[in-house]
Amino acid sequence: MLSKMLIGIVIALSIGGYFLYNKNQELIQLNVAFELKHAEQAAAIESITKNFEVQSNALTSLSEENAVIQGEMNRYLGIFRRHNLAKLAAAKPGLLEPKFNKATMEVFRGIEQDSINISNISN
């Protein structure tokens, strides 16, 4: 009777050990999957952080360029506020026309250069 009970306990422990072993293998596979997922997420976070830094630097650069352009615009608008160009152009058209034509050509060249720069960014 004791031997039958001992055999029953051994069989029960064997079956229990088998199920625990299977569960352990399943947990090991889940752990590997979670570690892989964690590594992928860490790489994604690092990539996003680098992109954020690049965008922050670009935004800072654009803000600085905008401040320079804003200063130039204010300077030019100040010139227009101080002078009545319509009155001066009516009085002396030969004096202002060449200056206007030259400034217009410079603006067109600037627009053309900006268009080329934008086109090169796309490539």
Characterize the structure shown:
The protein has 3 helices and no strands. With 123 residues, it is mostly helical. It has a domain at 86-123.
Would you summarize the structure shown here?
With 123 residues, the protein is an all-alpha fold.
Order of helices and strands: HHH
Report the count of strand segments: 0
Shape descriptor reads rod-shaped
Question: Overall pLDDT, averaged?
Answer: 89
- Determine the number of helices (DSSP H or I, runs of at least 4 residues): 3
Category from helices, strands and their pairing: mainly alpha
Poorly predicted runs are: none
Radius of gyration: 39 Å
Distance between the termini: 87 Å
Beta content: under 5%
The profile of the biggest β sheet is:
none
State the helical fraction.
Answer: over 70%
Can you lay out the helices and strands and say which pair or pack?
Blueprint (H helix, E strand, L loop, with lengths): L1 H81 L2 H7 L1 H30 L1
Provide key terms for this protein:
single chain, 123 residues, mainly alpha, 3 helices, 96% helix
